[in-house]
Each structure stands twice: as structure tokens, then as C-alpha cells.
Model the fold of this input.
Amino acid sequence: MIAAPSPAGPTATDLPAGPTPGEWSSAVAAIEAVPTGGRVLLLCHVNPDGDALGSMLGFGLGLRSLGGRSIQATFPGSQDLPPSLQGMPGAELLVPPDQSWTDPDLVLCFDVAAASRLGPLAQRMDSSTAIVVDHHASNTRFGGIHLVDPGAAATSVVVDQLLGRLGVPLDEQIAECLYIALVTDTGSFRFDMTTPAVHELAARLLATGIRPAEISRRVFDSRPFGAVRLFGAVLQRSALEPAAAGGRGLVWTYATLADLETYGQPPYVLEALIDSVRCTVEADVSCVLKQVTPTSWAVSMRSKGGVDVSQVAVSLGGGGHRLAAGFTGAGSVEEIVAAIRARLG
Ligand code: AMP
Ligand code: MN
Ligand code: MN
Done:
């Protein structure tokens, strides 16, 4: 059974506090201790989203502006980025994971709630001084130094604070990275972590001269016609279960590898599918299963506030936030939905 969060959203007492003064000073000291010519490796989670990539590259550009260090950025798994995230400022810092340093002077990872999200790159966190920059309440506290703020709407909020403490001023390129991260994780300032501080950060980012309309069109509103038709087919088979989640309602659908084949689409077009499903007013909880291999599925879950979906995701081996979480499911669609249904109570 999932505890119902307060309808007003998380309060300071619901969430662990952000980084302590000691954690901030340890992180700044570790970064400043990198010798001239030293190597800093930046990591983010598999299948990076706007927050993971934007936080990593925004920090990388900021660190580069201080001079003196060599910087690499990488992430595990497929190196194919969706077009919406290609060409982000700082992309020149990216290297394939197998070409990244195995013994850097310092490692930082961004938007990574658990070491498993780093795949084989998790080893890098053990072999060097490692700083975890994140905002997931489910963060497992792997790595050495923690800059984890579950009250932050995006990892980029923590990155902005870290850059400030390092004395790095925002420029247009850093701002574009951090803005993409912020709009991605706040659903364009719609989700419940959208605090006054989020808008104050957005204002500082916009003041550098970045163009929000052009960024939003590129990141959210660009889709090939085949993907529009694919969404139609997948949405057509959505199921609504009003009695699920203790009467709060569940809506779900799934997309198969065959669907991608039929419409000639790559897997990443499905990332936006959950946004078309979660608007269902009859259901508090929404869920999309995206087939990754014949027997495994990437599962996205969302809640409107009545259910903490991160508890469901964590109990099924994944993670995330109270209102947005996910896991990798094995088995058939019906088996995975049954497991979710059972945990929703
Ligand atoms: P998504 O539905 O992929 O947009 O993910 C929503 C949230 O759940 C994000 O904060 C992810 O970090 C988290 N998440 C998704 N999949 C997993 C997973 N397999 N393991 C841990 N966390 C996940
Ligand atoms: Mn992420
Ligand atoms: Mn994030």
C-alpha cells in the first residue's frame, strides 16, 4: 500500500535536507584540489534526458571556463542522443565511454540516483574522488561526496549553486544547458517542484540571452510524422482501470519493438508518450511500457499527487521521484502491469 502524500505536495519535513555546509565545502575543495593539467571525468545516467545531459555539459562548460583542467563527459549505453538533445552546447566534451579515462583525478556524476544507472562506468566512481550531484529522493548515496538535494526541481539547480560557489559566472552556453535541464524536469514549469527559486534561476538563465521559444520547440515540439502516427496507434490501445490504486485510477499503454518497426521510428521518440497518457483525468496514476528487448520493458510512471510512484518503482528495482518514476520490467505486458497494480493497492 502506498502512503498518500499531502495534496499540497512535498514539504520541507517530507524531504531530506539538501547538501550540508560540510558537503558543499568538501565538493568545492575536491574540485579546487585538481592539479593544473589534471583530468576531470563527468558522467550522467544511461539514456540521458535533458537534465542529465544539460547538468553534465553545463557544469563541464563552467569548469572549462576556469581553465587548467582537462575535461571529458560521457554516459553508458547507446550513444545515440535524440535530435532534441543533439548539438547542445558543450557536446564537444563528450567521448565514448570506452575511451574515457579510467583513472581521472576527479569524477562527478549528474542526475544519477543509483550506481546501476551508470552501468560499467560505475567503477570510475570507486577508483577516484567522486562527487554525486543529484536531486532524487531515492538517491542511494553511492560515491564519496554527496551534493544531493531532493528539494531541487532539477539537478541543474544544484549545478547552478555549485558553479556559483566555484565563482563561475553564467554565460549563454552554460545557461542553455541548464535551461534545457530545468524545463525538462519541471515539465516547462508545470510540476510541483516549480518554486519561486526555480523561476529566479530561469530568469538568470534567460538574462544571458538564450532563446526560450526556440529551445522549447527543439526540445519538446519537434517530432517526425511517423512518430505522430505511432503515438496514435499506441494511444488507441490505452487501458483505463478506474478501480486501481485504491480507486484513484490507473491508465496505461505499451509500445512494442514491432510498433517502432512499423512506423520506422527510433526508441527515443517514445519518451514523450507518457505526457499524452498522463493527462487522463479519470486516473491519478499513468504508466507506459516501452519494449527494449523481447522480454524487457522500460516502464515510465507518473502520478498527479495521490500516489508516490517512486515507491512502486523502487520496489520493482527502479527509482525516481514521488510523481515521476520508472523501472526496467521483465516478462509480459500483463505480468508487469499486474505487478504495478498489486503495489498500487
Ligand atoms: P522517465 O519515465 O524515464 O522519464 O523517468 C522518470 C524518473 O524515473 C526519472 O527521474 C528517472 O531518473 C527515474 N527512472 C526511470 N527509469 C529508471 C530506472 N530503470 N531506474 C531508476 N530510476 C529510473
Ligand atoms: Mn534524468
Ligand atoms: Mn533530474
User: Anything to note?
Assistant: Confidence is low (pLDDT under 50) at residues 1-13. The CA atoms of residues 195 and 236 lie 36 Å apart. The two ends are 5 Å apart (CA to CA). Residues 51, 111, 135, 154-155, 185 surround manganese (II) ion (ligand 3) (CB under 6 Å).
